[in-house]
Amino acid sequence: QVQLVESGGGLVQAGGSLRLSCVAAGSTTSFNVIGWYRQAPGKQRELAATITIGGMTTYADSVKGRFTISRDRIGTAVYLQMDSLKPEDTAVYYCHAEGYYRAGASWTQGTFWGQGTQVTVSS
């Protein structure tokens, strides 16, 4: 199976920066897309930023120009550089991936979520 292991959350003042990391562990994987969603208290989970295996990025309008997503060469690790953070960026950030993982001699399609990492921005 596949686990997405996140790190890098924490508490920061408004205007500060944080860098989130997510690494896939377990089975060999081939992700079509990997990225970050976030869920603020009392709100639905929403897309923050994603990147495809081809390098195409998608950002929520609210983070464009402030967040930068990147991945390693083989696409099993993803990073989110968050600059100019605002209190409204406070949320649990979840790593998400879609693609295939090696199960025995075959490849199986799957969708994967990390456990989440808390980001708190104080005003």
What do these coordinates show?
The chain has 123 residues and is mostly beta strands. It is 0% helix and 63% strand. The strands form two sheets. Strands 2, 4, 5, 6, 9, 10 and 11 form a seven-stranded mixed beta sheet that branches.
The strand count comes to 11
Number of helices: 0
Determine the N-to-C terminus distance. Answer: 40 Å
Helix content: under 10%
| Class from secondary-structure proportions | mainly beta
Helix/strand order: EEEEEEEEEEE
Strand content: over 45%
Poorly predicted sequence stretches spanning 5 or more consecutive residues: none
The residue-averaged pLDDT reads 95
What composes the largest sheet?
Answer: 7 strands, mixed
Our Rg estimate from Cα atoms comes to: 14 Å
CA-based shape: elongated
Key features of this structure:
four-stranded antiparallel beta sheet; 123 residues; mainly beta
